[in-house]
Amino acid sequence: MASRRLRTLKRWMKSKGFQWSDALEFVDTPEEGIAVRALCELKEGDVVAKMPKEACLTTKTSGAREIIEEAGLDGHLGLAFAIMYERSLGGDSPWNGYLQLLPYQESVPIVWTLNEVNELLCGTELHQTVQEDKALIYEDWKENILPLLDLAPLKLNPKFFAIEQYFAAKSLISSRSFEIDDYHGSGMVPLADLFNHKTGAEDVHFTAMSSNDDSDSDDDDSTNDGALNEEVAFTQSSSVDMTASNIANAGNCTASDLESSSDSEGDTSMLEMIMIKDVSSGTEVFNTYGLLGNAALLHRYGFTEQDNSYDIVNIDMELVLQWCSSTFSDRHSRARVALWRRLGYSACGNQNSEYFEISFDGEPQIELLILLHIMLLPDNAYQKLDLSVSVTGNSHESNVGTTLLNGYIFPNKASNMSKKSLLPKNTCDALMSLADMRESLYGLNSIEDDMEALERCSLVRERKVFHSLMLRINERKILEKLRKYASPAVEMNKHSSPRKKLKRTTKKTS
Ligand SMILES: C[S@@+](CC[C@H](N)C(=O)[O-])C[C@H]1O[C@@H](n2cnc3c(N)ncnc32)[C@H](O)[C@@H]1O
């Protein structure tokens, strides 16, 4: 039996022209919220849900459109204002039936208190990012939203536009919004946002047909007529309106396919959820929010996954320089870093925040290995290399997948060969030191303490503690693997996996 809030949502969706397969069931539990389940077998290619763009909550459809446009509130700032505005209308909002189902906020770290952020995220990839996010979000609100509350003709009720409401709206956007099209930008897509996420094992995809004609926007350069824009960031499906013409055998719960927009001559007014694999009866139907590590999942969606192979740990350039300063003079370190750069190497990030990635397998980025190696070169070897770079330029990469630096061979970026087997001992020692320094950022608790704490922790009652422990522990396990990688005693797997192309996803801003 569906919960009252789900029944209200379904009535609202029907009244707005949403369609969903009767083979989908929405399940609402107090512990886990809403999930979507297959009531019978679903087949790859089935269109299981259709959502009218006009019924999505966007800066174009909201009653606040004029205010948003006049105030120049772009992107997510405008969408957050639209959410606060529609919430302020209560029962008078056209989205009331949808808004009543949403949580007040999603428990993502931007809505945690600063104390919680400092305590729970200390040392993790998210700590600094979330501190910065909180400050930036506050500034955005103060600069753009607060002044609107003083404009009498707008008659905005300050209660619904306070900083807490802004943070809450931002948390809903980060965890539930979709990129709709060039005209609407990102928006809240009812029904699509009921599906939970599974990394790399999703069942449905969210698709949006680019609309060129339903727009009065002046950017006429959207050339992808009828092209399917696949949104990799989550989504789900919902059940079909029984009146949909192409539902077969609904009474017997045979999965029915809604007419796809791509079949119906590029109907750009509808968004769709399409099955990308067969799903058997009784199982949950998952979307994907992207191939994300735990830091990014917690940051945007408020949860983590056990054994997430997209996890990474970063070692900041600052930490590397700190290690250098404990062994070498500043002059030495600066000269070696400069040579490393002249050889054409760089770290991830930008000049203000450079970092090196350690993959889920504990493998450091090759650029870090080369920097450490150059840092540790004896003076005469350094001078020889420096001279040869001055004479021949930075032609240090050969074509055969390796780089030869003063007698040591390093694999090139694209190369697959094991890096460890080629590492000089002093580079391994430096890696060990860096692993220890990175580990110390987590504070006094050992990884064993964290694991015990996780065992005692209730996912339902202590969600923030649970997911932050999961993040910490998995990051620390990567550092353990880095130590193994750098340890001369352990024979490494010579067929190490190719580095996954991972970005530092935690730097995202909503
Ligand atoms: C788009 S909503 C999905 C529907 C949501 N379960 C609800 O109750 O409305 C995204 C949110 O669902 C939850 N969620 C999604 N996938 C999850 C997963 N694999 N594990 C835990 N929570 C998940 C997170 O709270 C996330 O912010």
UniProtKB/TrEMBL annotation:
Biased composition (Basic residues): 496-510
Domain (SET): residue spans on this chain: 22-290
Positions of region (Disordered): 490-510
InterPro entries named in the record: N-lys_methylase_SETD6, Rubisco_LSMT_subst-bd_sf, SET_dom, SET_dom_sf, SETD3_SETD6_MTase
GO cellular component: a single term: nucleus
GO molecular function: protein-lysine N-methyltransferase activity
Signal peptide extent: none
The enzyme's E.C. designation: 2.1.1.-
Protein localization: Nucleus
Gene Ontology terms: biological process: methylation
Enzyme class name: transferase
Function: Protein-lysine N-methyltransferase.
UniProt similarity note: Belongs to the class V-like SAM-binding methyltransferase superfamily. Histone-lysine methyltransferase family. SETD6 subfamily.
Name by which UniProt lists this protein: N-lysine methyltransferase
Originating species: Sphenostylis stenocarpa
